[in-house]
């Protein structure tokens, strides 16, 4: 059920910009950017908006075939994050801010064509192998694995991964890695990120699977219901799946590090 203040804000936007407003259902609508109707934004509203979470941009569409819609979605999300404040509705401010960002004076159009360059789009998931998501009582777990050959490389890649807007909204990003150094030593470590003992369990799994030169990150989006020890089962199973899909480890091992019994 959409909060009353959200309904009031949407009603005001519909009254001011009726040609830009298309309500698909109670929780979903398409908005065209006023003065820039080439751009259509599909938005949904989580139950926690506006208390603690902004609206979700599901899609950005442009009638201009030369526009990079992936870049536009990233740009619009940055604008939305910049105007949102806990406890305050923000859709009207979001549209107003977009009007200013997208505005180009006619005298500047020819100059813009000359200086415009291709936008730099960062794929935060490039090089990572993902597990299938596991959802249990509202919590979702996804693991990400990739090859690394030094701790410097590892920290750089993990930093880029965590910059992904969806991963930034996760509750925990647990991590474990094992790296074989050229001098014959091995570097290994883990991080619970608030999920006590999760990182050490993941590192133990990597050790049992004989994994080297690999880092695995498991992200958890907490759904509000505590699921007890089952969380460790999901953390290990998604980590194992991502590691195997990335081409590491012994596929005959279970998520507990034991050999699977032949049937």
TrEMBL record:
Q: What is this protein called?
A: RWD domain-containing protein
Q: Does the keyword Transferase apply?
A: no
Taking the first listed entry, what is the main subcellular location of this protein, grouped into a coarse class? cytoplasm
InterPro entries the record matches: Impact, Impact_N, Impact_N_sf, Ribosomal_Su5_D2-typ_SF, RWD_dom, UBQ-conjugating_enzyme/RWD, UPF0029_Impact_CS
The UniProt family comment states: Belongs to the IMPACT family.
Pfam families recorded: Impact_N, RWD
Q: Which residues form a coiled coil?
A: none
> PROSITE patterns from the entry?
RWD, UPF0029
Where is the protein localized?
Cytoplasm
CDD domains reported in the protein's UniProt record:
RWD_ScYIH1-like
Q: GO CC terms for this protein? A: cytoplasm
> PANTHER family, per this entry?
IMPACT-RELATED, PROTEIN IMPACT
Keyword Cytoplasm included in the entry's annotation: yes
**What keywords is this UniProt entry annotated with?**
Cytoplasm, Repressor, Stress response, Translation regulation
Kindly list the biological process annotations in GO that this record carries.
GCN2-mediated signaling; regulation of translational initiation
Which residues are in the RWD domain? 8-105
């Amino acid at each position: 059920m959409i909060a009353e203040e959200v309904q009031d804000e949407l009603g005001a936007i519909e009254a001011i910009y009726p040609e830009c407003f298309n309500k698909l259902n109670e929780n979903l609508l398409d908005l065209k950017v006023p003065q820039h109707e080439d751009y259509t934004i599909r938005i949904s509203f989580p139950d926690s908006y506006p208390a603690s979470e902004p609206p979700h941009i599901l899609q950005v569409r442009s009638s201009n075939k030369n526009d990079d819609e992936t870049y536009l979605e990233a740009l619009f999300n940055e604008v939305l994050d910049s105007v949102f404040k806990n406890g305050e509705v923000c859709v009207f401010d979001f549209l107003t801010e977009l009007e200013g960002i997208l505005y180009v004076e006619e005298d500047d159009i020819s100059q813009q064509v000359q200086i415009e360059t291709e936008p730099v789009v960062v794929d935060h998931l490039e090089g990572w192998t993902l597990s299938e998501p596991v959802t249990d009582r509202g919590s979702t777990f996804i693991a990400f694995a990739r090859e690394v050959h030094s701790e410097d490389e590892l920290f750089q890649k993990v930093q880029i991964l965590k910059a992904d807007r969806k991963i930034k909204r996760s509750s925990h990003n647990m991590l474990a890695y094992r790296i074989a150094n050229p001098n014959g030593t091995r570097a290994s470590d883990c991080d619970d990120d608030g999920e006590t003992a999760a990182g050490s369990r993941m590192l133990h799994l990597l050790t049992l699977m004989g994994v080297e030169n690999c880092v695995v990150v498991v992200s958890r989006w907490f759904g509000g219901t505590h699921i007890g020890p089952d969380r460790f089962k999901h953390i290990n199973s998604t980590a194992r799946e991502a590691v195997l899909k990335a081409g590491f480890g012994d596929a005959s091992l279970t998520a507990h590090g034991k050999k699977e019994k032949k049937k």
